[in-house]
Amino acid sequence: MADFPAYLNVDYTDGDGESPEAYPSIEEKLQKALEVVETGLREYENPAVMWTGGKDSTLTLYFVKEVVERYDDIEMPPAVFIDHFQHFDELIEFAERWADRWDIELLYARNDDIGGYVDEHGLTPGDDIPVADLSEHNRHHIRNILEYEEETFPFLLDTYVGNHLLKTVALNDTLESEGIDGIVSGIRWDEQDARADETFVSPRHDPDIYPPHDRVQPILQFAEADVWEAFWYFVVPETVEAYPDDGYVPQSYDDLPNELTHADIPVSPKYFAGFRSLGSEISTDKSAEEPAWLQDMANTTERAGRAQDKEDLMGRLRDLGYM
Fold this sequence. Notes:
The protein is an alpha/beta fold. It is built from ten helices and eight strands. The strands form two sheets. The chain has a six-stranded mixed beta sheet. It is globular, with a radius of gyration of 19 Å. It starts with 25 loop residues before the first helix and ends with a helix.
């Protein structure tokens, strides 16, 4: 990709200054998402999809599948799953099940240096990791990029150092090793203040911070409630044969039509159980007892169940390459 981004014809200003209200109907949101995905899959030489198994990235993956099925000249890109070693077990099972059913190549992005140290020493989340025992690559990020001066850091995902090493470094290393020039990501304007100014195609071109690439972001215009409307009236009816064609919104954990089970539905059971945002197992709590789509989205915060250390640092983390 020596001539990246010269071979691209993309509008980096598309979406600038907009909000979800610029796309008032669900049909307009859906159409814009499909247009952005098509641009991404046609313009980039080696695209991929960021997939966490969460609602936003699964919705994004659905749009990618839809575009691939519409056009014979577009191939399905691989999905990159960041394994930060602190996932809910159910989330990994969910991702592997649906990657198999949808015939998607699943690439795992891992910081193997840290993962190996954790395994070798039998660490659990919260235990300290000595900086001196890590690779030169990780020490460079800790000392020179993050300017972190302590001798140890906790093995926790939702912290400044932990998030950067376990997610951002893992992602950037995979982008570089796989030669990915455009990654389709499921972030939204309303989800977090640090993401409110993003555009549908967002450049990441500074080689001192990350492998030069672009972020293609097709669901910026969806609010949280829109995501769930898209799932229950479009995604699930169109991908689950026995689901009602006109949609159906489950009203409880076990409320599924036509004798379907959670394994039949491309929605993580954690959302049925009351989680609204899925982070690490150690630092994410459910928001309420009812399913996520039935909760008070207008008057409560979607990411309130997440550890707030990372949320408070989101702007700085995104400057370093976080999603």
